[in-house]
């Protein structure tokens, strides 16, 4: 993805890449870059800083586990930090992407081991992380346990009953069920 180091300005090459791979125009990209550099002067968003940012939105819950999964999905080159390109590509998909794009991104997050399928343990792990982030007292937190929720999701989506969800099963299941889509996608 490229390391931005302490550059104050985005290179022409990076600008062109972001304009062609996001829905943002040059002025919007410059605004995002300015904010990113204020928060991450060295051009690197670390896991700790990422968790701190999430805690502002979920002060009553434990966001750390969920943040680990989101961070892993944002950090596409797996170098341990999120650079501006990775950041903006992820923001673009999660805020402006089509339902299918958002679900493909969510699938990568749920596929914890990166093997191309989601198993029941991975689904339970992410659902539990979402529950933890919402906090025990949250009105938004469902009454069922993470295990029960994961089993119900699998019952609806795992068409061939092989104990794994392919990206196709995941997308189809979410696109046919608004409640699932709202819960599982960003």
TrEMBL record:
Residues 62-97, 98-133, 145-180 form the EF-hand domain. The keyword Repeat applies. Transmembrane segments: none annotated. SUPFAM superfamilies: EF-hand. SMART domains: EFh. It holds the Pfam family EF-hand_8. The keyword Kinase does not apply. GO terms for molecular function: calcium ion binding. Keywords: Calcium, Metal-binding, Repeat. PANTHER family: CALCIUM BINDING PROTEINS (PTHR23055), NEURONAL CALCIUM SENSOR 2 (PTHR23055:SF69). Belongs to the recoverin family. This is Neuronal calcium sensor 2.
């Amino acid at each position: 993805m490229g390391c931005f180091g302490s550059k104050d300005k985005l290179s022409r090459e990076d600008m062109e890449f972001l304009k062609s791979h996001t829905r943002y125009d040059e002025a919007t990209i410059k605004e995002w870059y300015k904010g990113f550099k204020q928060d991450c002067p060295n051009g690197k968003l670390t896991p700790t800083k990422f968790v701190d940012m999430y805690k502002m939105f979920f002060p009553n819950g434990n966001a750390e586990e969920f943040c680990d999964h989101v961070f892993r999905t944002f950090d596409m080159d797996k170098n341990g930090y999120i650079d501006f390109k990775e950041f903006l590509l992820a923001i673009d998909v999660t805020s402006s992407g089509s339902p299918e794009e958002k679900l493909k991104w969510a699938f990568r997050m749920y596929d914890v081991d990166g093997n191309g399928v989601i198993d029941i343990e991975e689904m339970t792990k992410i659902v539990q992380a979402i529950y933890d982030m919402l906090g025990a007292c949250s009105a938004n937190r469902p009454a069922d346990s993470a295990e029960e929720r994961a089993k119900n999701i699998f019952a609806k989506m795992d068409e061939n009953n092989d104990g794994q969800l392919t990206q196709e099963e995941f997308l189809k299941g979410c696109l046919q069920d608004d409640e699932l889509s709202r819960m599982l996608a960003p």
